[in-house]
Structures are given as C-alpha cells and as structure tokens.
Amino acid sequence: MRRPLVAGNWKMHGTRATVRALMTAVRDGLGDNRGADVLVLPPAVYIPDAVRLAEGTGIGVGAQNVADQDQGAYTGEIAADMLTDLGCAHALVGHSERRLHYGESDALVAARFAAAIRHGVTPLLCVGETLEQRESGDTEAVLAAQIDAVAEHVDGEALTRGVVAYEPVWAIGTGRTATPEQAQSAHAFIRARLAVHGAAATQVRILYGGSVKPETAAELFAMADIDGALVGGASLKADDFINIIARAV
Predict the structure, then answer these.
(1) 10 marked as binding residue
(2) Which residues contact 203 (CB under 8 A, 6 or more apart)?
(3) Catalytic residues
(4) Helices (H), the chain
(5) What's the total number of domains in the chain?
(6) Containing structural domain, residue 134
(7) Strand, coil or helix: what is 77?
(8) With a cut of 50, which residues of the chain have pLDDT below it?
(9) Is 232 annotated among the ligand-binding residues?
(10) Out of 40, 110, 193, 233, which residue is the most buried by the measure of CB atoms under 10 Å away?
(11) What is the CATH number of the domain that holds 85?
(12) Do residues 20 and 49 lie in contact, with contact meaning Cβ atoms separated by under 8 Å?
C-alpha cells in the first residue's frame, strides 16, 4: 500500500516572517493525526528556517532543485550533499517552470535525478505535457521521453527510490485542472513506463500537480494510481494546504 504524499511547492515566494507564519500554521493545523506524508519545498534560502520549524513534527522539507554535479565551479547551484547537510532529504527535478524558463533539457533533468540518488536525496521527478502536445495526441510520447531520459542514467532500483509528479503544463497556475480520468490515465501510463525500465512500479508514488485545490483534491485522490499531490499556489495558504492533506486518505 502506497502511503499518500502531499508536497507544497512554495516557488519564489515568501520572507523569513511569512515562512515562519506558514510553517507554524500548517504544523499547528495538522496536529498528529494525518493519513499522508507531508513535504514543503521553500525557496532555498529559507530551507534552514523551515527545517528548524519542522523539527519534531513529521513534516519533511525539500528543495526546489538540485545540482547535477557533486561539487565544483558551478556558480549558483546547490549540491545534493549540501541539502542533506541542512537536513533536507527531498528535491524537485524537472519542474516545468525550470524546463520552460531556464531551458532545462530531459538530459539535464535526468542528471539532476541521478545526483540526488547518489547522495541519498529523494528526487521528485516532474513530467508533463503542454496543451499543444495534449491536443496533438502526444501526451504519452512526451511522458515516455521524459521518463526514458532518466532511465538512461539510473537503473530500475534507483527509479523506485524516486517520486514522480505528473504536472500537465497547461494546468499549472492556470486554474485549470485535469479531470480525474485524464489524470488517472496519465498516472497509469507513467507507472507502466517505469515498469518497462525495471522499476518496482507498484511501489513508486506518483503525485498529481496542476492547480490542485481542496475542492478538486478528493476526486483526484480517489483514482487508483494517484498517490497524492504536488501543490503550488494553494500550499501558500495554510487552510487550503491542510484541507488538501486531509483529503489524501
């Protein structure tokens, strides 16, 4: 049985004061009774604050990216072992905004995934298609290419140690959400593709991301292959984030 995971991607938002307020509200609002694992992904400069505030709560803290290299002259990058040194055990790789705005290729995303695995950081691999690709009937081809690129760098056992987040690009920050049936179809395809590469695919948690809200979460989580959510804007509102987590049972 895969335990649900709900992760909040705070993107480039916040100050030390708002991070403290948000973490405190989520921590106090969740209490000890929850049916899902909870992860927050603050901007890198606030990871130490979030780790300190999450201590003893069971809330995990992750990074929004991780370097593809282990160390060296890579200005602006953050190595996986630096994250673990801060008490940060998860990292997003391949978010569509990184692919779109910063030109991250499938190959670079795969190298970031592999670097995270080498240092004991759990990568959350983001995959998903644009609206044009969906309307052209290319969704599965896009997902396959993104997963296959990672499989060229790591073996099936390493794939099993990651998490996958299906984020249709056309639903991120747009207010549009894939229907539960659309999301389930993509999740089932992803699980099957992982199995092709030797992953214990039934063990891999696959999250849905794309304008997830409390009112849409329950139907999404009811689908057989949806194991939680990667939440964007709603994770910046403590009540909304808590309500989404409550539906992941």
Answers:
(1) yes
(2) 2, 160
(3) 95, 167
(4) 16-30, 47-54, 80-85, 96-102, 106-118, 131-135, 139-151, 156-160, 180-196, 214-221, 238-246
(5) 1
(6) 5-246
(7) coil
(8) none
(9) yes
(10) 40
(11) 3.20.20.70
(12) yes
